[in-house]
Design goal:
Protein name: Phosphoesterase RecJ domain-containing protein
Number of helices: 12
CATH topology of the largest domain: inorganic pyrophosphatase (n-terminal core)
GO molecular function: nucleic acid binding
CATH superfamily of the largest domain: inorganic pyrophosphatase (n-terminal core)
Pfam family, one: DHH
InterPro entries: DDH_dom, DHH_sf, DHHA1_dom, Oligoribo/pAp-PDE_c-di-AMP_PDE
Organism: Saccharicrinis carchari
């Protein structure tokens, strides 16, 4: 799964560093937060001085994770964040493989001369670190992180708090093992985390079944009014503008998982979701089977990801993004059906 030389290089960098800053991608999801906080707990147990530096706020539904309150939000406290970065012996980039995924933090990271490691499971990485550990076959960065910790002989450093974080990331990045989760290694890692006596039922309740009333109303609005079918392409899509978000008291994380709902419709194997934000349109894509939505995202929405789960963004208007999806998907779908992709 991972090259032994890279694992040894990672081990040496961690062992010879004390002040370690862990950086996930902006708008961190369960895998990004799980990996960041999982490493944070492990490094603290090893006697290091780790800090998790989020480029933007984490979603509220992940606030229960131990250590979440100790993270630094670059958007809210850039001065402290920059000071910590300048003092860092080592930077750990987790769950992203190009610096643009850190938003406004990118410019600060580019200035730094510190040693850097990258731990990620997305394909086509940029060269952004001294040690690059990229394993696209892994279900999640949390699975990969726990695998690396075991390979380095540090399993005893993983307590229940770290194990809960890593488990959360695996569950959120696989839709509770419904996609990107066919490798036996994934289940071996899960078994190892369960042996740490985590309360998996509690985690599922907190992550998947603790919705706010406003989020549930927003989901109802989406399913009733904003879900559209493209049956000839076995596809469906959703879009939401800023006014709709405001009307439903939107909080970060409220739309997490919305892109998966269309795949529950019989005959639908491709899903798209377009979310209007202040300065861009966030695009999410999911698929079943062999449909490579990462290729579609790369071609038309400056994005990428995995075959069945991808993302992108656009500076175009919401309407232009939706129209592009409707106009470009038929040609892409036909090429896929004709084995031309």
């Amino acid at each position: 799964m991972t090259d032994s030389t890279l694992v040894e290089s990672l081990k040496q960098l961690i062992q010879t560093s004390n002040r370690i800053v862990i950086v996930p991608h902006l708008n961190p999801d369960g895998d990004a937060m799980g990996a960041s906080l999982g490493w944070w707990h492990v490094l603290k147990k090893m006697g290091k001085e780790p800090t998790v530096l989020n480029p933007t706020a984490y979603p509220m539904f992940l606030g229960w994770m131990k250590g979440a309150d100790d993270t630094i939000n670059f958007e809210k406290d850039s001065g402290l964040a920059i000071a910590l970065l300048k003092k860092a012996d080592l930077l750990m980039y987790v769950d992203f493989n190009c610096l643009k995924r850190t938003g406004k933090l990118e410019k600060e990271l580019e200035k730094l001369k510190s040693k850097k490691v990258m731990i990620d499971h997305h394909p086509y990485p940029d060269s952004i670190a001294d040690v690059m550990i990229s394993v696209p076959s892994s279900s999640s960065t949390c699975e990969l992180s726990y695998h690396l910790i075991n390979k380095m002989g540090w399993n005893e450093q993983v307590g229940v708090d770290a194990a809960e974080c890593f488990y959360t990331g695996i569950m959120t990045d696989t839709g509770s093992l419904s996609y990107n989760s066919s490798r036996p290694e994934t289940y071996r890692m899960i078994a190892g985390l369960l042996e740490k006596s985590i309360d998996k039922d509690k985690i599922h309740q907190l992550v998947f079944h603790s919705n706010s009333f406003s989020r549930m109303k927003l989901l109802g609005h989406v399913l009733a009014n904003k879900l559209f079918l493209m049956p000839d392409q076995e596809a469906a899509f959703i879009y939401l503008d800023k006014n709709e978000l405001a009307q439903h008291h939107f909080q970060p994380g409220d739309t997490e998982g919305f892109v998966n709902y269309p795949l529950s419709i019989e005959g639908i194997n491709i899903s798209g979701f377009f979310l209007e934000q202040d300065d861009k349109i966030k695009c999410s894509f999911r698929s079943r089977g062999e449909v490579p939505v990462n290729k579609f995202s790369e071609l038309h929405f400056s994005g990428g990801g995995h075959r069945n789960a991808a993302g992108g963004e656009s500076a175009s208007s919401l309407k232009e993004c939706v129209d592009r999806f409707k106009n470009e998907l038929p040609n892409f779908y036909n090429k896929f059906k004709n084995n031309e992709i």
